[in-house]
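Troubleshooting entry. Yesterday's outputs looked truncated, so today I'm pasting the complete records for two proteins to confirm everything comes through intact. If either block looks cut off, that's the bug. Protein one:
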Amino acid sequence: MQVLLLEDEPRLGRAVAGALAAQGYGVRWVEGLEAAREAFLELEPDLLVLDVRLPEDPDGGFRFAQEAREAGYKGPILFLTARDALEDRVLGLDLGGDDYLVKPFHLEELLARVRALLRRASEVKESRVRLGALEVDLAARAVYVGGRRVDLSLKEFALLELFLLHPERVFAPEEVAEKVFGDGEKVGAVKVYVHYLQQKLYPQVVRTVPGGYRLGDEP
């Protein structure tokens, strides 16, 4: 799952990005509206976590959420803000937000809300994905091959999920590295984790093709 985090306060942004990454989510952290717009187009995020008040615009998070909805974004949006007035909450929800977390907050509560929003989104889309004998429950993060449960690490699951959600797409190694590891230069790690998946699931689960990697054949 890919999360786009818009937060201008460095200490909070670093903490939230780190907490989300530790749970296995791919995270792109940006500090301003223009960077958020660019990342939104590149990342195809599954979740937007948006600070409302930004240096360039006191309603920047609201504005970005509205732009995303108008562009057709259907994923969940979580606002982070110190503004807890009723009219602010109503405005945020009316502009397409799904949840509203008032600062200061505990990271545990943030993570719980993220899980709930993504679980709800997965249920709306499709919780289970099947590829022959491979079955993946995206909401429960459970993987089965021929009915046998296979335990994957957080990064292994994130890698598999990326390919399952885009079965026809070829990903360049740098793009996979950015989405799964948050660093486009970690192409070596991509190669290692593709190998891990092939060992744990079956050799052709991810294929190397011209231009990068793509979902492979059925087991």
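Protein two, checking that the full record survives here as well:
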Amino acid sequence: MSDLLQDLLSLVWTGIVTGCLYAMGALGLVMIFKATRVVNFAHGNLAALAGFVVYGLTAMGGGLGWFASVLVALAIVIVLALVSYGLIARVSEASDLRGTIATLGISLVLQGAVQVLFGADIVNLDLPVPSWSATVAGLRITSYDVAVLAVSGSVIAVLFFVIERTRVGIAFRAVSTSAFASRVCGLNIHAVQGLAWGVAAGLGVTAALLIIPSTFLSSTTVASFMLQSFAAAVLGGFSSLPGSIVGGLIVGVTMNLFSYFVTSELSATFLLVLMLVALNLFPGGILPQRGGGSRA
């Protein structure tokens, strides 16, 4: 196998791993958009707060184990997500754009709160998995890769099962299709929309806790990571949950290839160009929401 082909395979593999995390972040954004027609710019800041809560409870003398700390962080972030939804629900009913702008304000408040509570320092937060690696068909596979694929695959499978096979999923799909018709039929749309915000927060926290060990944790890094998830949602079609997964994988692989063969300093520029090209070629996304029998 030539060196170039070996490099390509390694880059595609690591791109798929990070792409799974972008996809989970994008799924949260799309769930909120489908339920409320609001683009949640506070998604990354909520996830960052969870990362700092876990760091505070484990590394700063909190005395809790990693899994217990994650449960505490999840509970805090889900409550904050519901509070955020409660704050913008009436605003977004009047105008989707006003609701989206309101999330910008919430994101700034959360970012400021993180800096006040935990400071502006950069810290490390690892996963509690044993460190090992193996070489398979020339690819170096680490325990981190396996953990990311196992967790993201399981979470996404459960999410799609709930949406496709449960009454809660039917309610979510109904509200996503028409909030007005759902209200006329007696559905409590605020409960369904609040549930979407809570689940989206959980997806964001899971993605953030998995991506942080590969970089570092600061008050802005997770929010920056969510920009890649935003691009994945745009590529896949902002109303399509399967499209988010495809978009995440495309963003992960293409950004890896661009950073290696061109330059990593222009990766943000590349991401913007990628979104512009995709919007021109596929205005509704690569996998736009279908009519009729469409579900997710």
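Both blocks look complete. Sanity check on protein two: The mean pLDDT is 89.
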